[in-house]
């Protein structure tokens, strides 16, 4: 089926359809123009903040040589995920959320749904690998560089992209999410719509693979990191001042790594808070006979999108290097010769 036209906006009837030329068409939202405009403004602000914020992270880590560390390369890859979500996925979701219509055709609906699942899953995969990186940095610092080298980081990044891509595109294009939910899909399906429906089995599998298993792993790892960091902090406080002078460099390194672990732990917490409601209802809605209103599900999706907006804000709040890099970028000094060698923090 070809994408439906936009001439439904001009139809003067009380109940406007997404595709006026099709008999079985989805019904366009009945919200007033003031509500529509407010929603568009709010969502455009989220999209712009997501794109600009994560693009700044990408430029900062890519440009400044001092930021070329294993952890930052993982952060760079995760910022790319968030950037793509804001640039490609969120604008189309905005139109669908406000108008309750899909004007881009069935094939692109599958592409959009696949990318949506892939990028949200890729985010939590990145966070899982970042938690592993922080575990070795804080709990086994002497062997950190041998354990987390360039090859290991490349493997982590590849897995974080390829596994979610295979899972998401395979599920959507093979209609695995509809196995066992054909009746409800045929009941709600209409021309000019793009619905993502999960059966009981696919809803549980998608939630477990994309959220609950990696989320549980991250919580366990960060709990171990917190416990070890607490013990090391007590040990440092117990060292005499004389001995402290000899171990000052090691202690500064430990404090920096512990702060990085704490910051990334906050990022993980933000992710869990933003996405846990959506994945909870995705798993339970099929068992409740799909009684949860689509408007609520759509709102939870945008609450999950908000995680991609908040990540750069967390960097700006906790990382001095990000604030300094942002200042250099905004002032245009990034185009100066040897600006990539600028020291953003003391070694």
Automatic annotation (TrEMBL):
Keywords recorded for this protein, A-Z: Cell membrane, Disulfide bond, Endoplasmic reticulum, G-protein coupled receptor, Glycoprotein, Membrane, Receptor, Transducer, Transmembrane, Transmembrane helix
Task: Note whether Magnesium occurs among the keywords.
Answer: no
**Chief location of this protein within or outside the cell:** membrane
Q: Any transmembrane segments, and where? A: 37-61, 73-97, 117-136, 148-174, 204-222, 263-282, 302-322
Q: Per the database record, which ranges form the G-protein coupled receptors family 1 profile domain?
A: 53-315
Q: Which InterPro entries match?
A: GPCR_Rhodpsn (IPR000276), GPCR_Rhodpsn_7TM (IPR017452), TAAR (IPR050569), TAAR1 (IPR009133), TAAR_fam (IPR009132)
Q: Its Gene Ontology biological processes?
A: adenylate cyclase-activating G protein-coupled receptor signaling pathway; adenylate cyclase-inhibiting G protein-coupled receptor signaling pathway; phospholipase C-activating G protein-coupled receptor signaling pathway
Q: Which PROSITE patterns does this UniProt record tie to the protein?
A: G_PROTEIN_RECEP_F1_1, G_PROTEIN_RECEP_F1_2
Molecular function (GO) terms for this protein are: trace-amine receptor activity
Compartments, record wording: Cell membrane; Endoplasmic reticulum membrane
Q: A Gene Ontology CC term for this entry?
A: plasma membrane
Stored SMART domains: 7TM_GPCR_Srsx
Topology with regard to the membrane?
A: Multi-pass membrane protein
Into which family does the record put it? Belongs to the G-protein coupled receptor 1 family.
Name of this chain's protein = Trace amine-associated receptor 1
């Amino acid at each position: 089926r070809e994408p439906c036209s936009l001439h439904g906006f001009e139809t003067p009837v009380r109940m406007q359809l997404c595709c006026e030329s099709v008999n079985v068409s989805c019904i366009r939202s009945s919200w007033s123009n003031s509500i529509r405009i407010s929603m568009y403004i709010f969502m455009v602000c989220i999209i712009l903040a997501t794109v600009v914020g994560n693009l700044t992270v990408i430029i900062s880590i890519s440009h400044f040589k001092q930021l070329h560390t294993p952890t930052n390369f993982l952060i760079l890859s995760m910022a790319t995920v968030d950037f793509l979500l804001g640039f490609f996925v969120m604008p189309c979701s905005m139109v669908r959320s406000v108008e309750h219509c899909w004007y881009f055709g069935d094939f692109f609906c599958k592409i959009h749904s696949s990318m949506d699942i892939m990028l949200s899953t890729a985010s939590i995969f990145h966070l899982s690998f970042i938690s592993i990186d922080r575990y070795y940095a804080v709990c086994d610092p002497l062997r950190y560089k041998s354990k987390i080298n360039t090859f290991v980081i490349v493997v982590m990044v590849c897995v974080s992209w390829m596994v979610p891509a295979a899972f998401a595109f395979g599920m959507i294009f093979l209609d695995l999410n509809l196995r066992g939910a054909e009746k409800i899909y045929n009941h709600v399906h209409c021309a000019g719509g793009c619905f993502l429906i999960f059966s009981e089995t696919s809803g549980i599998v998608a939630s477990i693979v994309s959220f609950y298993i990696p989320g549980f792993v991250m919580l366990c790892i960060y709990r171990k990191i917190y416990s070890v960091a607490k013990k090391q902090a007590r040990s440092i406080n117990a060292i005499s001042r004389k001995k402290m002078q000899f171990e000052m460099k090691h202690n500064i390194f430990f404090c920096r790594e512990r702060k990085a672990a704490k910051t990334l732990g906050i990022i993980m917490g933000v992710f869990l808070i933003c996405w846990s409601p959506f994945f909870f209802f995705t798993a339970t809605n099929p068992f409740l006979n799909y009684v949860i209103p689509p408007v609520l599900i759509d709102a939870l999706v945008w609450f999950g999108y908000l995680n991609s907006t908040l990540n750069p804000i967390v960097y700006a709040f906790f990382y001095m290097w990000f604030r300094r890099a942002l200042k250099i970028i905004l002032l245009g000094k990034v185009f100066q010769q040897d600006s990539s060698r600028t020291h953003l923090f003391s070694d």
